[in-house]
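Re: the multi-chain job from yesterday

Posting the exact lines I submitted so nobody has to dig through the queue logs.
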Amino acid sequence: MGMDIRLDGICHSYGDTDVLRDISLEIPTGQIVCLVGPSGCGKSTLLRLIGGLERPGSGRVLQLGAPPADSLNPLTFVFQDFALLPWRSVKGNISLVLEDHGIRGQRSKAIIDDVLKRTKLSDFADALPKQLSGGMKQRVAIARALAVNPAVMLMDEPLSALDAQTRELLMDDLVALWTRQPFTAVYVTHNLAEAVRLGHTIVVLSRRPGQIREIVRIDTPIGERRAGDPVCQTKHDLLWELMREEARAADEELIDG
Amino acid sequence: MAETEAANRPNDDKPIEVRFRGGGFAPRSLRWVGVAVFVVLIGLIQWGTQSGWISALTLPKPSDVLATFVQLWESGLLFKHLQPSLTRLVIGAALGASAGIATGVLIGLFSYVRAGLVPLVAAIFPIPKIALLPLFVIWFGIDEGSKYALIAFGTFTPTVVATYGAVDNVDRSLIRMGQSFGLSWSSIVRKIVLPGAMPGILSGLRISLAIAIILLVAAEMLGAEYGIGAYILEAGSLYDLERLFAGVVILSLLGVLVSALIGLLEKRLLGWRV
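And the result, C-alpha cells for all chains:
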C-alpha cells in the first residue's frame, strides 16, 4: 500500500535554454530521495514538474499505485520561503488547506491540534507569522503539509533560508518525524550535509542542462546517522568530489549564456 | 607587529570615538507636531490680521471665521448643508469605489480584461470629470443623480488603477502555494489575492476619497440649493470671506475625518503587516 512516483524521460526547457535532459527516476514509498546539484541545474524545476506546478517539455511523471484514501493532497510542497499567509495565524494557515475539502469545526481542530503537536507548535496556534522566527515559520509550513496527509512531500530547499543552528535543529525534527512515521519525500537541496543526513538515495544532477550524474545510496538507517559518522563522511566526500567540478563550471557560467 | 599597530592608529595615542552615521529614514509617529503647525499658522494669521499687517481683504480673522462657524452651528444651517453633502459623498464614493475595486480585480486576474480595459481607463483618467457634468445632467437628471454619477465616476478611475496594481503585487509564491495544495480558483482569489491586495487598495482609497470631496464641491457649485459647495459659492460671490473660510474649514475637517476612517480600517484589516 503506497504510492510510488516514476519519472519517465523528462526533458524541459525555458525558451532556447535546456534545463533538464532525459531524467528517469523512481521514488519509492517510504523513502527520502534527495536531489543535489549546482545552482541553476534545474533541481527545483524538476520538483515543480513532479508536483504538477509545471508541465514537462517531454516525458511523463507517473503515479504508481493509489495514494492513501485519507490523503487530501497526495503531492504536497514545502517551500524554501515558507509561503505562509501573513494575515492568518498559525492555526489559520493550516485550516486554509483544510477548508477547501470541507473540513471545518471539530474535525479541523482535531487535525490542527495533532499536526501542531507533532511539530512542537501547540503553544503558538494563535501567533501571526510576523511574530515567528524563520525556523518556526518552516515548522508551521511542515505542519501545514502534514495536515493534508500527503503521499509524497516535495521539499524545495526547506532549510536553505535558515541559519546553521536552526538548520541542525530542524534536521533533527525531520529525522524524528520520519522515524515515528516514515513518509515519502523528494528533498531538493544544495547542502550535502542535509542530503547525507536525510536521504536514503541521493541523486546528483549535473550542471545545466541537468542530467542524472550519479545515484548514491546510503544504507545506514536515518535515525542512526550522526555528524562525523565515518560512512556518512565518506559519502559526503564522494558527493563533493562528484559535484566540485560541476559547481565550479556552473559558477563561472554567464547567466543567459 | 608593533609597527603595523602604530600605523593603524592616529598619531597621538588618544582613542577617537567612532562617529555615529546611522539613523534616520524611519518615520516615527509624532502627532503633536501636526497640531503645533496648525496652531502656529493660525496664531500668525490672527496676529497679522489684528495688527493690520494683513488687510481684511486678503484674509479674514480666524476668530471671526470661528464665530461664523459657531453661528452656523447654532442656527442649524450647518446640518442643513452638511446632510445632503454627506449623503452625496457616501453614495457617490461607495458606488465608484466598489465598481472600481471590482473592475481592478478583474483587470488583475484576466489578461483579456486587462488588455481591453487598461487603455480605456488610461484614456478616462486624465479627463477632468467636472467637464462632463453637463453631460451627466442630461443622462442622470439635474437632481441628485448627476451628482452621484460625477462623484462615482471620479472615484472609479483612481480606484481601478490602485486595485489592479495591488493585485499585480500580490506575492506569486503564495498563489503557487495555494495551487500546490489544490485550492479552488475562487478560494485562491478570496483567501490569497484579495487580502494580499488589501494594503494597496486601501491606500488607493485614500486618494480616491479626497478626489470625491473635491468633486462633491464642484458638483454642488453648479447647481444645488443646500450643500457645502453651494454655501461656499454663495459666500464667494458676496465676497464674504468669513463664511467662505468657514466652508473651507468644514471641507478640511471632512478630509481629515475620511483619512482617519481609512486609518482605522487599516489598523483593523492590516494588523498583520510587519
